Amino acid sequence: MKKLFYVLLISIFCMGIVSCANTYTKIIKSKATNTVFDEISEASGSTLVDSTVEESSIKDSTITKSKILANSKIMNKSIIINSTIENSTISNSEIINQTITNQIITNSKIEGPTKEEEAAKEE
Fold first, then answer.
1. Smallest Cα–Cα separation from 103: which of 119, 120, 80?
2. Which of 2, 60, 62, 86 is spaced 20 to 30 A from 27 at the CA atom?
3. CA–CA gap between residue 50 and residue 71 (Å, rounded)
4. What is the reported pTM?
5. CA distances, 77 to each of 46, 64, 65, 99 (Å)
6. For a pLDDT cut of 90, what percent of the chain falls above it?
7. Per-domain boundaries in the chain
8. What is the four-CA torsion angle of 37, 70, 68, 75, rounded to 10 degrees?
9. Which residues pair with 53 in a beta bridge?
10. Confidence bin at 115 (pLDDT 50/70/90)
């Protein structure tokens, strides 16, 4: 009985470690394509393409054609291009051609379509 208890205890501990390893990712000065950043993940100085960022922190990075969701933080000179942004905080970043919903945006540059592009859409 005592051995069974120890095996069970060690198994639960190992499963907990594996669980933590699966939910936390840290990427520095890298390129990630088709990646899911979920629950307290971090990226710094990186390029994210066709990725999903959820409840994560992104700094000094370029995010292209990605989804930024659920309380993510995009900070410090990041560039966001052609991405969907929902319920996130963006600061000190450049935002280009975005659909922005329910955002807190501070000290950032926001660029939309040019007047010519808007006129072409209306025609």
1. 80
2. 86
3. 19
4. 0.61
5. 12, 14, 18, 19
6. 0
7. 26-100
8. -90
9. 37, 68
10. low
Two structure tokens written together for 67: 């989804």
The type of residue at 35 is T
| Exposed e or buried b per residue across 65-93, where buried means at least 16 C-beta atoms within 10 angstroms of its C-beta | ebbbbeebbbbeebbbbebebbebebeeb
Among 43, 36, 101, 51, CA closest to 76: 43
Secondary structure (H, E, C), the chain: CHHHHHHHHHHHHHHHHHHHHHHCCEEECCEEECCEEECCCEEECCEEECCEEECCEEECCEEECCEEECCCEEECCCEEECCEEECCEEECCEEECCEEECCEEECCEEECCCHHHHHHHHC
